[in-house]
Specification:
Protein name: Esterase
CATH class of the largest domain: Alpha Beta
CATH architecture of the largest domain: 3-Layer(aba) Sandwich
Helix content: 10-25%
Number of helices: 12
Number of domains: 3
CATH superfamily of the largest domain: Alpha/Beta hydrolase fold, catalytic domain
Radius of gyration: 25 Å
Number of strands: 30
InterPro entries: AB_hydrolase_fold, Mycobacterial_A85_antigen
Strand content: 15-25%
Structural class: alpha+beta
Organism: Fontibacter flavus
Largest sheet: 8 strands, antiparallel
């Protein structure tokens, strides 16, 4: 079969001798049809236990990746790309040690958006998989190839694989799936944009048509289906697996048991009835929009609050008023739970924010973006120290902030296109730059902070600052609604921003905030408020662990004409 080639000429840095090698990357003609713009990644791994595309991480065992953008690929013609480009963890090809590696080529396709703000941008394709570059349907790649790397040979690599389409989940008795076109987002992006949700219905939903239910909004990353709910007992033949994150065997069985226990509680006659939704709002930058309006992502906050949620409430007999809506979640979902409560103070009646992403940018993990000059280094007159990025509960550091950002620089380049954590924060919080892409909060390579961008972040997304600035107008609407939980050894130092936010909340007057901020002793990411069980259990219980507080809130705030016993309006 004939193949057309990408000729990748690898040039050395000008101050070093020229390298003596090249790649010849061939693409199967059957995969060229819609190949126009994108980013080509070359990945190397030191073992074959996982494909290189699945092994790029913040940890010391990460695979190696180099990346380069290309545009206007012409089918049947060679495309030369200079791979004197930036790499992670090793920056330069010249420094790759000789040895045996498994090598893989991968293409992240880009599509063109003609946005309503007048900018035309090229961004990764999102195919309802949750913006995972290494799994996106339609992205193409080669199978890993074992090579003896010398840095002086020519290597032939064939791209002949393609990621398959996503299989969407089917409705069940209790779980329904919603997908709607958002008029607000479609207008912004210049193409049809959809929002989705997995909806958990209460028992006997079809038998009591006069019942109307409060809505629990479980925020978080892109869920492929409703999580943590299982109508059958755990699989007796399930082979126990080791979970590296928690350091235990059999976590897959624990997950199934917890999901089944939740189902048993859900159908019991004394369990309160309510709707639970997990929202799907992927976008070209990430698996989640952060549920707020953004210059770069568009009006996701308004789309979720005023389009998606009312549609769900109308379809599934939600009460449809702010006093009957509650938000919760952890990490990304924790930030979202607090953000939507602050941004839409009367549309929700309480938030439970666990291990939230930075809610005070004086502690943007370990960076104060307002006072620090550089995000990557602590600088003195004679010494410069790397700023830490990730730790365990003992304080042992496994990644530096610079390396975590350099990983994204290699994967996605300079336009926030990696699909990873620091790039989505930048995409959500930043103004639009001259070229239509997010304006960097700091130089991705050097770490130098842009104070103008920091000021934009402060005025629009620093949740502690916004509450403090606007407390005289929104404080009354937030009274009794704010609950924040975080481990005091959060892996990403997210507890630092919680400390600062708590100090403000405790200082509030007229009104006092009347909420709750709690910390887990030596608890890592993502502690969510239960001191009696470890993270690996409580993270599976979000849908039940705040119910007592929610019930108390409903008793105190529901209108008198509503019957809280059976969720019926008094006639």
């Amino acid at each position: 079969m004939k193949y057309f080639s990408f000729l990748l000429i690898l040039l050395a840095f000008s101050c070093q001798p020229k390298q003596d090698f090249q790649f010849n990357i061939s693409v199967n003609p059957e995969l060229e049809e819609d190949l126009k713009d994108g980013r080509l990644l070359i990945l190397l791994h030191h073992h074959d236990k996982s494909e290189p595309r699945f092994a790029v991480s913040d940890e010391p065992g990460s695979a190696q990746v180099f990346g380069v953008d290309f545009e206007n690929y012409q089918k049947g013609k060679n495309l030369e790309m200079d791979l004197n480009s930036f790499g992670y963890p090793i920056e330069s090809w010249q420094d790759i040690p000789e040895g045996e590696y498994w090598i893989q080529a991968y293409i992240v396709k880009h599509e063109t958006f003609n946005r309503a703000d007048g900018h035309t941008v090229k961004l990764p394709v999102e195919q309802w998989e949750g913006r995972q570059w290494n799994r996106t349907p339609g992205n193409i790649f080669s199978l890993p190839k074992k090579v003896n790397w010398t840095g002086k040979q020519s290597l032939e690599i064939v791209i002949d694989q393609i990621n398959p389409p996503v299989e969407e989940p089917e409705d069940t008795e209790f779980i329904k799936h919603i997908k709607i076109k958002s008029d607000l987002l479609s207008a912004f992006w210049g193409k049809d944009i959809f929002l989705g949700a997995h909806v958990l219905l209460p028992r006997d939903f079809d038998q009591h048509l006069n019942e109307y239910y409060p809505l629990m909004v479980f925020h978080g990353h892109f869920p492929t289906d409703f999580s943590g709910f299982r109508t059958s007992p755990p699989d007796e033949n399930l082979e126990e697996e080791y979970n590296a994150r928690f350091g235990i065997y059999g976590y897959n069985k624990i997950q199934q048991q917890e999901a089944y226990d939740f189902y048993q509680r859900w159908i019991s006659p004394d369990f309160p009835k309510f709707l639970v939704i997990e929202i799907q709002h992927p976008n070209p930058f990430y698996d989640d929009s952060y549920a707020v309006n953004s210059d770069n992502l568009g009006p996701y906050g308004d789309a979720i609050t005023y389009e998606l949620i009312p549609h769900i409430e109308k379809t599934f007999r939600g009460i449809g008023e702010g006093w009957a809506r509650f938000t919760y979640g952890g990490s990304t979902g924790g930030w979202e739970a607090l953000a939507v409560q602050v941004k839409y103070p009367t549309e929700y009646n309480g938030c439970f924010a666990a291990c939230p992403d930075p809610i005070d940018f004086r502690a943007y993990t370990t960076v104060n973006i307002y006072e620090d000059e550089n995000a990557y280094f602590l600088e003195g007159p004679f010494k410069r120290t790397d700023r830490v990025g990730k730790r365990n509960y003992l304080g042992h550091v496994s990644a530096m902030l610079k390396d975590m950002n350099h990983k994204e620089l290699a994967l996605g380049g300079t336009k926030s296109r990696s699909g990873d954590q620091w790039d989505i924060w930048q995409a959500v919080f930043s103004p639009v730059d001259y070229d239509g892409y997010p304006k960097p909060i700091w130089d991705k390579y050097t770490g130098k902070i842009n104070k103008e961008v920091a000021e934009h972040w402060k005025e629009n997304y620093d949740l502690r600052y916004i509450m403090e600035r606007d407390w005289s107008t929104i404080g009354k609407d937030l009274e009794g609604k704010i609950h924040i939980y975080c481990g005091d050894m959060d892996n990403y130092y997210l507890n630092n921003a919680v400390y600062l936010t708590e100090a403000f909340l405790e200082s509030t007057e007229d009104p006092y905030y009347k909420g709750e901020v709690l910390y887990g002793d030596r608890a890592e990411h993502c502690w969510n408020g239960d001191p009696d069980f470890p993270n690996y259990i409580t993270r599976l219980r979000y849908n039940t662990m705040y119910l007592d507080k929610i019930a108390n809130r409903l008793q105190a705030t529901a209108p008198t004409e509503f019957n809280l016993k059976d969720w019926t309006l008094k006639r």
